[in-house]
Design brief:
homodimer; 5-stranded mixed β-sheet; 14 helices; 17 strands; elongated
Amino acid sequence: MTDAAARAAIVSVGDELLAGRVVDTNASWASARLREEGFPVALRLAVGDDEAAIAWAVRQAFDAAPVVVVGGGIGPTRDDVTRGGVAGALNAPVAEHAGALALIRATYSQRGLPMPAGSETQALMPAGAEPVPNGNGTAPGILWRGSGRAEGRVLIVVPGVPAEFRSMIESALVPILRARADRGGPPVSGAITLAGMREVDVGRTVADLMDRGRDPLVGSYPKRGRVVLFAESRAGGSEGARRVEDALAEIERRLGDFVVGRGDLLLEEVVAGLLLSRGLTVAVAESLTGGLVADGLVEVPGVSKAFLAGFVAYANRAKTQVLGVPEALLAKHGAVSEECVRAMAEGARARSGADLAIALTGIAGPSGGSEDKPVGTTWFGLADANGTVAARVVFPGDRAAVRAYARARAFDFMRRRLLGLPLFPPRPAP
Amino acid sequence: MTDAAARAAIVSVGDELLAGRVVDTNASWASARLREEGFPVALRLAVGDDEAAIAWAVRQAFDAAPVVVVGGGIGPTRDDVTRGGVAGALNAPVAEHAGALALIRATYSQRGLPMPAGSETQALMPAGAEPVPNGNGTAPGILWRGSGRAEGRVLIVVPGVPAEFRSMIESALVPILRARADRGGPPVSGAITLAGMREVDVGRTVADLMDRGRDPLVGSYPKRGRVVLFAESRAGGSEGARRVEDALAEIERRLGDFVVGRGDLLLEEVVAGLLLSRGLTVAVAESLTGGLVADGLVEVPGVSKAFLAGFVAYANRAKTQVLGVPEALLAKHGAVSEECVRAMAEGARARSGADLAIALTGIAGPSGGSEDKPVGTTWFGLADANGTVAARVVFPGDRAAVRAYARARAFDFMRRRLLGLPLFPPRPAP
């Protein structure tokens, strides 16, 4: 770990992390954010609320990078050993900082509350460090900038509470990074979002482009039922941009209408955009997804013009009562059938007056599967002015996975229907 | 980092982690799992797809703990440097392992597919290591057990794909841990789930119990709109269990009916359990939550007997058409009003025939707020045979936060209504 220019390292502190009680989303957020600012992360460490372990981790972090972010262990609760650990790593004594104490007093007086006894410990800082105001909590952060042999080193300590972690990095660290001469350029990269194809099949289709020796580097990651392919060039400037563009264009050529578009796109936003730009309305009828598809639409601000109504008809009785699926149809074909999903889609369209209605019914498991209708079997129905189409997909995985896949595919099918594309296009040759 | 008995360490490998493209949920999962098996995690590291960095990280991991899990970098794509990095840390040469190659061939032949060229690289293993079968993918894992001076050390390398990561740790590592003499006991701990109170207020109410010097250690963490308090004793056996029980009983005494129950409970399951055990049915009418509450019910397997119908009425037109809210009422009071939420709840109950109906309408933001109805304002209505009650709460945060809080509170209000508790109980004194 000797390449120490224009790099950052992150130390996450907390027994709750090492116990697996919480997921370290702070480290991911900071990794992306520091990279954007030209300081890609070289190393992340997570240690418990243990002063010696924190001191050790901060030293390793500085061996790997001149910019170090430490998150956690300085909040208002009493497991507060990060200050001592950081001071140990810096070989600095700890003392009460008058400015930090003033910040804490001001926080309480603004809220009209007395400062609780013991709050003074939050004003303890390593010598030479400055307090970082905390707009969302009581604990000030700690900002230390090296001098002499440590010239160029920067350390920030922020609370582990995500809102405080993020806003204090933005307000106190990002301006310092932007002023540094060793700052790297932002990565020259681009992304393409794909839907309706598994990551492994995407990988086969572009395997040669993903060779590790190539520039740009092309990689893929699955994300909530879609796949994002990215291309990133080590070459800077226009040469890098040209290489990235060439790779993305080649990916688009090979993957055809599995491509949703450029960037890391949310299918929900793509579908809402198509509906809103065309002045169309939509209704949703859900069984196994139980409101997930409707919710995906509502996640998009401003969608109320397009989203007319959602019906969650999980039980058979609800399918009849709420959507008008005939009891005889359910008795003859069952709730997980092409006939039922067509009736659900048409019922939702008729009852809401929407231009497009989508319906889903399936078997999310863990029980309810059979040989001809295994767990994961999902029927999709789409009804619009051109008629009704239906499609069956069998999704792998457990209840949560099946429901998440079904939700994502529903948005891809809406996208396809709105664009006049077939629901199941021919697969590209690997 | 010298306390090396009955501890584990985790090394996560992948450029996508350090770029912040994916969140390292594997590390959290493994942290909890290893701890359950008596090997609490002392250190986690994350490094990129870089052989030297991986080798360094594995060495640090072994300095901290005798059991090391390495995840990522051995999958079917071509960014495959973990093998070399691990071999470097072990000072072992790498060679093709006949057993590993046989596993790879068998995986493809079971699927009726030819083995792609280049798959042989997945059979490369450090000398002395054994392959770990991969039931969900093509890349075998690597299991290495030290001897001589390294006696007692165990290293497992598994793919970063979560399903493969988890199943291979279960199948190959857990049995080894269970056979070790240095295995610690499982933590003596207990948890209580709370709803309807913010974490900071919970903390104030039990601040003295959370003192870091005490045993059991009491901590809290927020989780999808509820708060979980846990107590964990360093004392083993019955003495530890007694201390944990005393702390939990004291917490229950102070927090009254904010307590949902013992354990890390899902409110959805608690509400579904109450409905099913009483033979009651429920309907949901949602605006700002757009299907999230209905979805919460459907997350619970077997809920179809109780969950009659969900209505997502985001636009005003839908509130009228789908739930029968009078247009005049909407014109006079607006959609975010006590009158509207009562009409929504009563409409959902009448149209579904459910015993209990809950309705939500509010302003999730980012726009739409006003001085008397700020962003976050949410009205809840509950209609049952005893009549209709309504409650207003203003939630903090952005669109996603407001919607998540509203969802959680809806389940707490259902719990309270089903148990005959007031929607807003008096707060306990701090």
